[in-house]
TrEMBL record:
The record marks 279 as: Plays an important role in substrate specificity. Pathway: Amino-acid biosynthesis; glycine biosynthesis; glycine from L-serine: step 1/1; One-carbon metabolism; tetrahydrofolate interconversion. The gene is glyA. It is found in: Cytoplasm. Belongs to the SHMT family. It comes from Geodermatophilus dictyosporus. InterPro entries: PyrdxlP-dep_Trfase, PyrdxlP-dep_Trfase_major, PyrdxlP-dep_Trfase_small, Ser_HO-MeTrfase, Ser_HO-MeTrfase-like, Ser_HO-MeTrfase_PLP_BS, SHMT-like_dom. This is Serine hydroxymethyltransferase. The lineage of its organism: Bacteria, Bacillati, Actinomycetota, Actinomycetes, Geodermatophilales.
């Protein structure tokens, strides 16, 4: 089997971290201690959080240096500050690696997170499609030429724009036009869901909604949908109604980079703009980036300071290292293993009687409907955590328990795959999960109705499972050979 974990020299990395912690401890030993404790906790945890991963020591070490001190507003070669030649080097490298990795004509690596990447993209579409014509109408060539009245008219025009995105309970993201987020205040929003019978995206229904609603932006992408999305079809829908297609691949960027999602399922050739995080399945530093077709490049470049604070050069440097890692053949093997493992986990759960939203998975996510165990997502999440299994509760389509308690638990394979877990380990994980859930019962509230939050796990099972989970993670140590003392 190809090694899917990032390789590093354990003795060198150990020496680097030991020295770094010693330097930190000279100022505030409790922080150094907490850093060590975090490694221990991560090592001990059976982590099934679908949005988390473990970056390589090379990626992590790239973030701790003097690049952090540099202001670098602007773009490569056009900075508002002097002395940015080295920042230029790493930002250009990160962008080049991103373009090559994803086959994209243009990449912007400054966003600090996935949400920031979306803001840049939304702004870019407004600037390209609304602001430019508004400027022309006002007889102005540049935003700076606009009068207060022009701006008022522009704000009105911007406020009237529409966004169509995947509904939250079908797995969409808060930033895809939902009211608690700025995207829901910038845009009038409507959403598409999944087919109630199959749990799958119904592209004809998306098209019908788009024809009716005529959005400026059609959003695609998800945080909790366990299937591939046909981006070629989404582009057809966008084109038919004159919308700009933005695909937020935050969750599955690693599967795009690792060539698991190709052809119609690769967002890059189909979307006008692609946004992403760099720290989820892609296994890079915490951050975001934007890929775009050439006509959106100038508007995307204005991301900072239009909607972003100054770029983080140390993180852009780490993106360059992570993208370089993702261009290695090893990463393709990793991405395939992530999906193969999700299938093993899904099969293991289904075989033991669990119900999965859509009946299975085609990506790194398994969405478990826990209502069959008489539990809410919150109870299931807590009971699993008591048993040493780290997951997060998640709404399922038409969730009877709402977005807080929920009826689902989301499981993901990227992190444990990085540790080297394979089919056997994920089958064992499925066994542990079903064991815990089948032996958990809600406790009653004072009026005798079942609580949505309180529960009991049958005597001793939580402890027993925690020991079994610890045994399982011990077989695939995180950062093998890395010792802090
Ligand atoms: C995780 C996620 C984000 C947010 O990323 P942050 O880096 O936490 O800002 C945005 N969109 C989708 C689809 C996500 O899954």
């Amino acid at each position: 089997m190809t090694d899917v974990t990032p390789s590093f020299d354990a003795a060198t990395a150990s020496a680097a971290y030991r020295s770094a912690l010693q330097v930190i401890a000279e100022v505030e030993p409790r922080v150094a201690e907490a850093i060590g404790a975090e490694l221990a906790d991560q090592r001990d945890s059976l982590k099934l959080i679908a949005s988390e991963n473990y970056a390589s020591p090379a990626v992590l070490l790239t973030m701790g240096n003097w690049f952090s001190d540099k202001y670098a507003e602007g773009t490569v070669g056009h900075r508002f500050y002097a002395g940015c030649q080295n920042v230029d080097t790493v930002e250009a490298l990160a962008a080049e690696h991103a373009r090559e990795l994803f086959g994209a004509p243009y990449a912007y690596v400054q966003p600090h997170s996935g949400i920031d990447a979306n803001l840049v993209a939304f702004w870019a579409v407004l600037a390209q499609r609304v602001e430019a014509p508004a400027l022309q109408a006002a007889g102005a060539r540049h935003v700076n030429d606009l009068t207060d009245e022009d701006w008022a008219a522009l704000r009105h025009a911007l406020g009237d724009q529409r966004m169509l995105g995947m509904s939250l309970d079908a797995g969409g993201h808060l930033t895809h036009g939902f009211r608690p987020n700025i995207s829901g205040k910038m845009f009038a929003q409507s959403s598409y869901g999944t087919d109630p019978a199959t749990g799958l995206l119904d592209y004809d229904a998306v098209a019908a909604r788009a024809r009716e609603f005529r959005p400026l932006i059609l959003m695609a992408g998800y945080s909790a949908y366990p299937r591939k999305v046909d981006f070629a079809r989404m582009r057809e829908i966008a084109d038919e109604v004159g919308a700009t297609l933005i695909v937020d691949m935050s969750h599955f960027a690693g599967l795009v980079a690792g060539k698991v999602f190709t052809g119609d399922f690769d967002p890059v050739p189909h979307a006008h703009v692609v946004t992403s995080t760099s720290h989820k399945s892609l296994r890079g530093p915490r951050g975001g980036f934007v890929l775009a077709q050439p006509e959106y490049a100038d508007a995307v470049d204005r991301g900072c300071p239009m909607v972003l604070g100054g770029p983080l050069p140390h993180v852009m440097a780490a993106k360059a290292v992570a993208f370089a890692e993702a261009r290695r053949p090893q990463f393709t093997a990793y991405a395939q293993a992530v999906v193969d493992n999700a299938v093993s986990l899904a099969d293991g759960l289904t075989r033991r009687g669990a119900r999965l939203v859509t009946g299975g998975t085609e990506n790194h996510i398994v969405l478990l409907d826990v209502s069959g165990y008489g539990l809410t997502g919150r109870q299931a999440e807590s009971a699993l955590l008591d048993a040493g299994i780290v997951t997060n509760r998640n709404a399922i389509p038409a969730d009877a328990n709402g977005a807080w308690y929920t009826s689902g638990v989301r499981l993901g394979t990227p992190a444990l795959t990085t540790r080297g877990f394979g089919a056997a380990e994920f089958d064992r994980t499925a066994e542990l999960i079903v064991d815990v859930l089948s032996n958990t019962t809600p406790t009653s509230t004072r009026d005798g109705s079942p609580s949505k939050a309180k529960y009991v796990v049958d005597g001793g099972l939580a402890d027993k499972t925690r020991a079994a989970a610890a045994e399982l993670v011990a077989t695939h140590p995180l950062y093998p050979g890395l010792e802090l003392s």
